[in-house]
Specification:
The complex is a heterotrimer.
Chain A (H helix, E strand, L loop, with lengths): L3 H36 L17 H7 L2 H34 L5 H13 L2 H14 L6 H26 L2 H9 L4 H30 L2 H6 L7 H12 L3 H23 L2 H5 L2
Chain B lengths: L1 H15 L13 H8 L1 H35 L3 H12 L3 H12 L4 H9 L12 H26 L2 H9 L4 H12 L1 H16 L3 H7 L6 H12 L2 H24 L3 H6 L5
Helix pairs in contact in B: 2-13, 3-7, 3-10, 4-7, 5-11, 7-10, 7-11, 8-9, 10-13, 12-13
Chain C lengths: L3 E10 L2 E11 L4 E5 L6 H9 L6 E6 L2 E2 L10 E4 L11 H11 L4 H14 L15 H13 L5 E5 L7 H18 L2 E6 L2 H7 L2 E6 L2 E7 H6 L4 H7 L3 E10 L3 E6 L2 E6 L11 E6 L4 E4 L7 E11 L2 E7 L4 E6 L9 E6 L5 E4 L2 E2 L13
Parallel strand pairs in C: 3-8, 3-9, 6-7, 7-8
Antiparallel strand pairs in C: 1-2, 1-4, 4-5, 9-10, 11-12, 11-14, 12-13, 14-20, 15-19, 16-17, 16-19, 17-18, 20-21
Helix pairs in contact in C: 2-3, 2-4
The chains are: A mainly alpha, B mainly alpha, C alpha+beta.
C-alpha cells in the first residue's frame, strides 16, 4: 500500500507535474533541432556553443558548392521517380485488394508491413547481395528500386484504407448509368480516392528524400543523394555547411508534413 | 515487386550465410560458430543487447510519461501530436548531426555544464556509451509515444474514476488499472524501439565510433570494407532472428496489431 | 443525522453554470432520485458527491462531515457508473474485491463477502468468469455488487439502466429495489427517466438547468408540481395560455381566445387581474363531448389512435393542440367537439409557478 499522504499529493499535483514533464520532454525533442538551426548561422568553423557571431556565410557557401547542389538534384530525381512508381504500384495493389479475391490476399498485410519492421541494415545488405546475383549492379536504378521497396509499404498503408472506404455502390451506380470499366475508374473511383493517393505520395516522397541506409548500400559513387552527401560531410569534413544542409532537410520535412496535413488529417499520418 | 526485391534478397542472404565464401562454395556453419567463439563479436552482441534494453527502458519511461500527460491532461492534442511527430520526420542523419552539435567538446552540453558549474573543463561526451544511448533514445522516443498515446486514449476514463471511487489513489490506480489496460500499447512501443535499436548502425557510427561497436556496424563493415559477405549475412540473420523473436512476443501478448499498423524504422 | 447533506452547492465551469445553489438531504436507508433532463446538472451533482468534481462553493456533508476537498478514493461513497466501468482485465470476483482490498479487508473475509454479495445479486458461482463473458444485465448486477460490497454510507448510481432494453430495464428496476431493501444501504440515483424514478424512489429531487425545481415524495411531486416544468416533466401535459380577468372567493376566471374558463383557486395574492396564466391539464384528466353538451372549450379532431383500451384524440383548439385520452370512440377526424376536464385536476401557472390549490395542501411558493 502506498501511504495516503503521497497519494493525496499526487492526486492534487499530478496534473501539474505531468504537464510539466510533458513540456520538458517535448522541449528535449526540439532543442537539437533548434540548435542545428542556430548553428547554421554561426561564423566559427568549430561547433562551439554559444556561437560568437551570426552570419549567412555558410548559406552562400552551400549555394556555391557544386557537389552539394548536385546532391540535391540527384535526391530530387531519385525521389520523384521512386514516388511515381510507388504511387502507381500501391494504387494498383490497393485496387486489387479492394476489388478482387486472389490467393494469398490474407498474407498481403504482413508482406507489406515487414519491410517497415525489419532493420534497414539487414534489408540493405540483402539487396546489395541480390543485385549482385541478378546483375543489376549498383547505381542510379538500384537506388530507385531500393527507394520503391522502402516507400511502397507506407504508401500502401495509407492508400489501402482509402480504397476500402470507397463506396462500391457508386461504381455500380456509374455502370448502371452506362459507364465502362475504365470510365468508372477515372471518373468515379479516382476522384474519391485521390486525397489518399496524394497523401500516400507525399509520405513516400518525404521518406524517399530522407532515405539513407538502403541508399548507402546499393548506390555507386556517382549516385550521391543529399543524405549520403551529408553523411560523408559529417564523417570526413565536418564543415558548418552541414548545418545549412540540415536546415534544408528540416524545411523540406516540415513543408511536406504541413502539405500532407492540409490534405489528410493528423491522426492518419501519426498513427501509421 | 516487394516479393522480388525484398523477400528474395532476404532468402538469398540466409542461404549465403551458410557458405564459406561466395557461391559456388561449400556449405558450412562456420560463420555462426565464428560469432559465438570470437570474443570481439560476443562483446559486440552483448553491448548491442545492453544498449537495446537501456534505450527501450528510457523510451518507455519518457514516452509513456509524455503520452499519459497528452492523453489525460491536455486539450490541444492535435498540436501536441504534431510537436512530437515532426522531429521524427526530420532526416535521421540531421538529427544525429544535431546531437553531435550538442555532445561535442564545447557544444551545448559542455556550455550548460560550465554555466551551471557542474564541470570546469569542456570535455564533450562524443564516442561514449552515453552518447549512443541518448542518441538512440532521442531517435525512437516519438515513435514509441504514438502506440502509448493510442492505447491511453482508447482506454475508458471511467475505469480510472471507478478505481478511485473504490478507494485506490492515483498511484495505485495507475499500477492496477491504467498500466494493465494499456499493456498492448506498451508492448507495441517496446517492439517498435527494440527492433531497430538492435539493428542500428547510423547512430553508433556517428556518435559512438569504433569504441562503441554494435552489430549493425559490424554488418556494414563486412559489406563495405572487410568484404566477408557470408559472415555479414550470418550476422544479419542473427538480427533477423531477434526481429522474429520480438514479433512472436508481440503476437503472444496480442499486440501484433499495434506493430503492423504503426511503425517505421529509421 | 442525514447520510448526505448538500448545502447551497454551486458549480461553474469557465462561463457555464452547471449547478446553482442546490440544497437537499438524503436520510439513512432512503432511495432518492435526482431527476432531470440531459444538461440539467444532475450528473455533475452526483460527481461532486462522489468526489470527481469539487463545488465552486457550498458544502457536501457525508454523515455530518464536510467532504469538499476530500479525494474520491478517501470518501465513504461508491458509484455505479453509467457505462458500468467494470475492469475488463479482472474477473467478476476480482472486480468485486477491488474496493475491499483497498480498504484492507483480509483475504478470508473478502472471499466470504464476495460470495455473500454474489448471492444477493443472484450470480453465485460466477466469480471466476471474465467480464466480457457476462450479459448486459449480469454486468449491471456485478457493477452494483462491486459498489455494495464495500458497505459505503451511500451508493451513487449514474443512470445505470439507460443502456438496457425496455424489458431488461423493467426487470432491473425491481432488482435494484429488492437489493436496496435487502441491504438497507442508502441509494442516490440519477436519471432522466421519470418513469423509472417514480417507480423505484422514496423521494425525488427535480433538477432543471442547474437549479432544483422541487423535492419531495413521488406522490407529492406528481400530484402537486410546483412549477410548469415539473408538471410537464412528470407526465404529458396539455397547456393553454390566457389572461386572468376576474377572481372570486374560490375561483378564478381566465379568458382564452375570448372564451372564459373558470378554475378553482383561493390564493388571492398569487394572481392579479391581467396576469398571463397557463392552464395545464393531463390528457388522462380531459374528456370529449359532443358540442351540444356544452364543455369548456371547442375544437376539431385532427387525429385519433387506439392505445389499448382507450382512444387518444388529437384536438386542434386554435391556439394549441390538445391530447385527450378517453374511453369514448364516437368521434371521427374532422368532427367538431367540446373539451371538458375535471376542474379539480387543473394546474394553474403564473410565470411558470403552479398557483392552483389542492384541497388538503397549501401550495408552497418560493421566494
Amino acid at each position: 500500500m502506498i501511504p495516503n499522504t503521497i497519494e493525496r499529493f499526487v492526486d492534487r499535483r499530478g496534473r501539474t507535474i505531468g504537464l510539466g514533464l510533458m513540456w520538458v520532454v517535448i522541449a528535449l525533442l526540439w532543442i537539437p533541432i533548434g540548435i542545428v538551426t542556430l548553428m547554421s548561422f554561426a561564423a566559427d568553423r568549430a561547433l562551439a556553443f554559444p556561437p560568437d557571431e551570426l552570419t549567412l556565410h555558410w548559406y552562400r557557401e552551400f549555394l556555391q558548392n557544386d557537389a552539394a547542389i548536385d546532391a540535391v538534384f540527384t535526391s530530387l530525381q531519385v525521389s520523384v521517380i521512386a514516388t511515381l512508381i510507388t504511387v502507381v504500384l500501391a494504387t494498383i495493389l490497393s485496387y486489387a485488394i479492394a476489388k478482387y479475391e486472389f490467393p494469398g490476399k490474407g498474407m498481403i498485410q504482413l508482406v507489406v508491413t515487414l519491410p517497415i519492421i525489419v532493420p534497414l541494415v539487414v534489408v540493405g545488405v540483402a539487396m546489395v547481395l541480390f543485385f549482385g546475383v541478378i546483375n543489376v549492379g549498383t547505381g542510379f536504378w538500384s537506388v530507385v528500386i531500393a527507394h520503391v521497396v522502402r516507400t511502397i509499404p507506407f504508401a500502401a498503408l495509407i492508400i489501402i484504407p482509402t480504397m476500402l472506404r470507397f463506396d462500391e455502390t457508386l461504381e455500380e451506380a456509374a455502370k448502371d448509368l452506362g459507364a465502362d470499366e475504365l470510365d468508372v475508374f477515372v471518373n468515379v473511383r479516382l476522384p474519391n480516392i485521390l486525397p489518399g493517393i496524394v497523401a500516400g505520395g507525399l509520405l513516400a516522397f518525404t521518406i524517399s528524400f530522407n532515405e539513407f541506409v538502403y541508399t548507402y548500400f546499393v548506390r555507386d559513387t556517382r549516385t550521391e543523394t543529399l543524405p549520403i552527401y551529408l553523411w560523408n560531410q559529417i564523417r570526413f569534413e565536418a564543415s558548418p555547411e552541414v548545418n545549412v544542409i540540415s536546415v534544408v532537410f528540416l524545411l523540406v520535412a516540415i513543408g511536406m508534413i504541413l502539405l500532407a496535413l492540409a490534405i489528410t488529417n493528423v491522426q492518419r499520418i501519426t498513427m501509421r | 515487386m516487394l516479393l522480388l526485391f525484398f523477400i528474395l534478397p532476404l532468402l538469398y542472404m540466409v542461404w549465403l550465410s551458410f557458405h564459406d565464401g561466395m557461391p559456388p562454395a561449400s556449405l558450412t556453419l562456420e560463420n555462426y560458430l565464428n560469432v559465438v567463439t570470437t570474443d570481439l563479436y560476443l562483446r559486440v552482441v552483448w553491448r548491442t543487447t545492453v544498449l537495446t534494453v537501456q534505450t527501450t527502458a528510457l523510451v518507455v519511461v519518457l514516452g509513456y510519461t509524455l503520452a499519459y500527460s497528452m492523453a489525460r491532461f491536455s486539450k490541444r492534442t492535435t498540436l501536441l501530436l504534431l510537436l512530437v511527430i515532426l522531429p521524427f520526420w526530420t532526416n535521421y542523419i540531421v538529427r544525429m548531426y544535431a546531437l553531435i552539435n550538442i555532445f561535442s567538446r564545447d557544444g551545448l552540453l559542455d556550455w550548460m555544464q560550465l554555466v551551471t558549474g557542474l564541470a570546469q573543463e569542456p570535455s564533450g561526451i562524443m564516442y561514449t556509451h552515453t552518447a549512443v544511448l541518448l542518441g538512440l533514445t532521442y531517435v525512437w522516443l516519438p515513435l514509441a509515444t504514438l502506440p502509448f498515446y493510442a492505447s491511453l486514449t482508447n482506454m475508458d476514463d471511467n475505469l480510472i474514476e471507478a478505481a478511485k471511487d473504490l478507494g485506490a489513489g492515483p498511484i495505485e490506480t495507475f499500477f492496477t488499472v491504467t498500466l494493465p489496460m494499456t499493456k498492448n500499447g506498451v508492448i507495441g512501443g517496446i517492439i517498435l524501439v527494440a527492433i531497430p535499436t538492435f539493428g542500428a548502425f547510423v547512430t553508433p557510427t556517428l556518435l559512438g565510433g569504433t569504441d562503441q561497436l554494435m552489430i549493425g556496424m559490424v554488418i556494414e563493415n563486412q559489406f563495405t570494407e572487410a568484404f566477408n559477405w557470408p559472415f555479414g549475412s550470418a550476422l544479419s540473420v542473427i538480427v533477423s532472428a531477434f526481429v522474429v523473436l520480438m514479433l512472436l512476443i508481440a503476437v503472444k501478448f496480442g499486440a501484433g496489431d499495434v506493430v503492423t499498423r504503426r511503425s517505421d524504422t529509421q | 443525522m442525514s447520510v448526505l447533506q448538500v448545502e447551497n452547492v454551486r458549480k461553474e465551469y469557465d462561463d457555464v453554470l452547471a449547478v446553482e445553489d442546490a440544497s437537499f438531504a438524503v436520510e439513512d436507508g432512503e432511495f432518492v432520485s435526482i431527476l432531470g433532463p440531459s444538461g440539467s446538472g444532475k450528473s455533475t451533482m452526483l460527481r461532486m458527491v462522489a468526489g470527481f468534481e469539487s463545488p465552486t462553493s457550498g458544502d457536501i456533508r457525508i454523515n455530518g462531515e464536510n467532504v469538499v476537498g476530500v479525494p474520491s478514493f478517501e470518501r465513504d461513497t461508491n458509484m455505479v457508473f453509467q457505462n458500468l466501468a467494470l475492469f475488463p482485465h479482472l474477473t467478476v470476483a476480482e472486480n468485486i474485491a477491488f474496493g475491499l482490498k483497498r480498504r484492507g479487508v483480509g483475504r478470508e473475509e473478502r472471499e466470504k463477502r464476495i460470495e455473500d454479495i454474489l448471492e444477493v445479486v443472484e450470480l453465485s458461482g460466477y466469480g471466476d468468469r471474465d467480464i466480457d463473458q457476462m450479459s448486459g444485465g449480469e454486468q449491471q448486477r456485478i457493477a452494483l455488487a462491486r459498489a455494495i460490497v464495500n458497505e459505503p454510507s451511500i451508493i451513487l448510481l449514474d443512470e445505470p439502466l439507460a443502456s438496457l432494453d425496455r424489458k431488461l430495464r423493467q426487470h432491473m428496476k425491481f432488482e435494484l429495489q429488492r437489493i436496496q431493501e435487502e441491504t438497507g444501504i442508502t441509494f442516490l440515483y440519477v436519471t432522466h427517466d421519470q418513469e423509472v424514478a417514480m417507480s423505484i424512489s422514496d423521494r425525488m429531487v427535480i433538477l432543471n438547468e442547474g437549479s432544483i425545481e422541487q423535492k419531495g415524495s413521488v406522490q407529492d411531486i406528481y400530484d402537486r408540481p410546483e412549477t410548469r416544468f415539473v408538471a410537464q416533466f412528470m407526465g404529458d401535459l396539455n397547456a393553454v395560455t390566457g389572461t386572468a380577468v376576474d377572481q372570486s372567493e374560490n375561483t378564478i376566471e381566465v379568458e382564452i381566445d375570448e372564451t372564459a374558463v373558470t378554475v378553482p383557486y383561493d390564493d388571492t395574492s398569487a394572481v392579479s387581474d391581467g396576469d398571463t396564466i397557463d392552464i395545464g391539464v393531463r390528457p388522462s384528466h380531459a374528456d370529449l363531448v359532443p358540442p351540444s353538451n356544452g364543455g369548456i372549450m371547442s375544437g376539431t379532431v385532427t387525429n385519433h389512435i387506439y392505445a389499448g383500451d382507450e382512444m387518444v384524440y388529437t384536438v386542434d383548439i386554435g391556439q394549441e393542440v390538445f391530447q385527450v385520452e378517453t374511453e369514448t370512440d364516437s368521434f371521427e377526424i374532422g368532427d367538431t367537439v367540446a373539451l371538458t376536464w375535471d376542474a379539480e385536476q387543473t394546474f394553474l401557472f403564473n410565470g411558470g409557478q403552479n398557483v392552483s390549490v389542492r384541497d388538503e395542501h397549501a401550495v408552497q411558493l418560493e421566494g
